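Table S2 (continued). Query chain:
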Amino acid sequence: VHTYFIQPYVIPTGSLERTLRIGDLLFVSKFHYGARTPMTTIAAPMVHDTLPGIGVKSYLNKPQLPYFRLPGFTKVKRNDIVVFSWPADTVYQFFRKDKGVKKPIDKKSNYVKRCVGVPGDSLEVIDGYVYIDGKKLELPERAKPQYDYTIYGNNGVSSKLLQEIGVIDFQRKFISPPLNQIQVDALGKYIIGFNRRGDGQLELYTKETGIPVDLIRKLNLPLKEETARAREAALTDGMVAELKKNPSIDSVERVIAPKGKRGINLFPQSPDYDWNYDQLGPIYIPEKGKTVALNLKVLPLYKKIIREYEGNKLEVSGNQILINGQVVDSYTFKQDYYWMMGDNRDHSEDSRAWGYVPENHIVGTPIFIWLSFDNFNDGITHWKPRWDRIFTTVHGDGQPRSYFRYFLIALAAYFIGSYFWGKRKKNRK
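Corresponding output:
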């Protein structure tokens, strides 16, 4: 069932906030696009790339079977949310940055993003918005893209206000007197940074959740939160509208990297391309069977496809490009490719960082959220159910609707019916 039909996944990072949220537990369909048959022949069952508890890889690299996909009933389309094997994965274990591990395709870490470019598209990112063949890509109603904004308020922008409108992932700053070791140990799990001021006071930086009031009282600390006049946060259009209506806010302005300002660690990792997360392209999304002209200028865009994804020997000799020992000036693609991006546009490691997603890396599409928790990465004792997200569909028109109450009604009806049916059978005897 896991291999060919449905598999549970969890959203561990915020790259699709607030469309899919950290702590969403999903059912991912593998039959929509056609299930990819296993390529790794020797592997431990029911685990992905690492054996839990002992941190040892769960598979052998050889032997490998060739790529094959069963027939599906739809192709990957623009705006689909897609689960795929992370093309750039060389980490030994997810969330650990051990580099240099070559993984089989089906043992690479699974990522989930929105497909914004399909084979044959000409894609460009302008001011953070995606354009396909010169037209702005319209996202579905359920998509809630976020962009970074600077929020200004002459009297300060309060953390409470940001929390009330649903903003997450922003920093808070508290002013504290010098701490003793007991206080340091107690506060350590909440502090993400600190700075000692000239007057001896400490600036303590925390995530948006801050420091629990009960702990502050227990430690008898005279903490004071410093409210800055300007704060940066990732906001949806709805959040921006709410802030602009608030009389304490003077302005809300997008943070946009200008054209020509080269970003760090961006595809195609070449000094000839001064792209950044907000300004990128135009770029062609390769289509199976289509041919592109090759020269030293465009080679950085396609060299990973030619060498790694399609298994050719690629060399450059002077001004000449050689593939499998032959001088070439063009290349014909052997499979389709896609461009994936997160809806949390300024906080997503996606195709803008590592490029195209090959068709043989596609896993499936999420179809159903069966559970969802706030504070998911803080440990099970801190989990809080998001009741409005439980038993909701991922795709579809209109806003998500929870079917949890209907499930409970059906469950209650089943048990009540079973009780009376059993009682009736007993009376007949």
